[in-house]
Amino acid sequence: MGTFRVVLAILACALSSAGLSACRAHDEDEEAIGYKRPVERPVDPIKAQQAIDEIVKTVWHGTSPNVEFDFDSDELRDEAQPVLDSVVNLMLTHPDVKLMLLGHTDIIGTEEYNADLAARRGKAVKTYLVSHGVPPPSIRYHTFGFSLPAADNATDEGRQRNRRVELRLTPREWLSVF
Questions:
Q1: What is the CA angle 152-157-163, rounded to 5?
Q2: What is the DSSP letter of 39?
Q3: Residue 62 backbone zone (phi > 0: left; psi -120 to 50: alpha; other: beta)
Q4: Measured CA distances, 35 to 96, 116, 119, 152 (Å)
Q5: How many other CB atoms are there within 10 angstroms of residue 69's CB atom?
Q6: CA dist 53 to 57, 96, 141, Å?
Q7: Buried/exposed 94-119: b ≥16 CB within 10 Å, e otherwise
Q8: pLDDT by residue (tens digit) across 94-105?
Q9: What's the pLDDT tens digit per position in 138-149?
Q10: How far is residue 31's CA from residue 74's CA, in Å, rounded to a whole number?
Q11: Which pTM does this prediction carry?
């Protein structure tokens, strides 16, 4: 019900002649569900579009982008936003595309804890995508914990690369994927 109220508040902002009061109500709803607005930074629209185009090109060529996380965290980092926004754009433009999120961790901690952390990371990415309009049935996530490292867990840099959610896109229906 909370998400429905947020959507209504956004529509009220766009359509209301007294948009300011409706936007204040929207802000209160965002606070109620714990949404934190990202800090707005000046963006060069040409560079932003080039970055999005590059991500979309790599996705369509089979290279999946990753979203990295800080140690012991399931909160999205600022640098994840352009990647996820391009995935939102891609999935809204091509509704037949499905997305599998693969959650990973570094080797620090127990297997059980890391499995849970990887699931929370997958859920954080899914929540972001859904909150930006991607239909929830188009997204699934699976967790691997620390069982499939992308880099050497013996170094700080390697452990950082292993704290990730991989985004795998497919144009196939779910039944043909499994």
A1: 80
A2: P
A3: left
A4: 28, 22, 20, 35
A5: 27
A6: 6, 20, 25
A7: eeebbbbbbbbbbbebeeeebbbbbb
A8: 888 889 999 999
A9: 999 999 999 999
A10: 19
A11: 0.64
